[in-house]
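F.,

This is the one I mentioned.
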């Protein structure tokens, strides 16, 4: 999900030295992207596995719903490079979305999630990762250990050489 046009509008306000409106456009675009993600998740629940879903706002904030929707690059899936496969699979670039060299999504008001419907699904945080685990992960990904270490650095249980 991405909000198109907000960056150009914000840039126009910046060119006019109106930082307040620029910041507000960016903040509103971010909130709209998150709200649309919430809506898409609700529609997916209703269509695929929970036809009577009608949560109130407190239930949504407390994440009291069936399944999870983790995002690549966040605690349960810390490797941002996985976004490349997702973008390729969904042909996200045809929608005007891009990935930066650090795998941030553009436009900035963009959100990507995976939806797991299993009622036993739970959020988790990847803890500290050992050198052996990183070596195994790198081998399975077909990338050098140094590259895996770069993207998993906050989760490493050791100092890379």
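My design for it:
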């Amino acid at each position: 999900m991405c909000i198109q046009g907000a960056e150009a509008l914000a840039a126009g306000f910046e060119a006019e030295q109106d930082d307040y409106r620029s910041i507000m456009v960016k903040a509103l675009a971010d909130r709209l992207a998150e709200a649309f993600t919430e809506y898409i998740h609700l529609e997916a629940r209703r269509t695929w596995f929970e036809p009577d879903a009608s949560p109130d706002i407190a239930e949504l904030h407390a994440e009291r719903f069936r399944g999870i929707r983790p995002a690549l690059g966040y605690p349960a899936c810390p490797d941002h490079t996985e976004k490349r496969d997702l973008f390729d699979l969904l042909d996200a670039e045809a929608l005007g979305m891009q990935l930066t060299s650090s795998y941030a999504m553009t436009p900035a008001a963009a959100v990507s999630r995976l939806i797991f419907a299993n009622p036993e699904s739970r959020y988790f945080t990847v803890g500290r990762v050992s050198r052996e685990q990183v070596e195994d992960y790198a081998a399975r990904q077909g990338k050098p250990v140094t590259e895996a270490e770069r993207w998993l650095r906050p989760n490493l249980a050791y100092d890379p050489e």
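The CA atoms of residues 137 and 143 lie 9 Å apart.

Talk soon.
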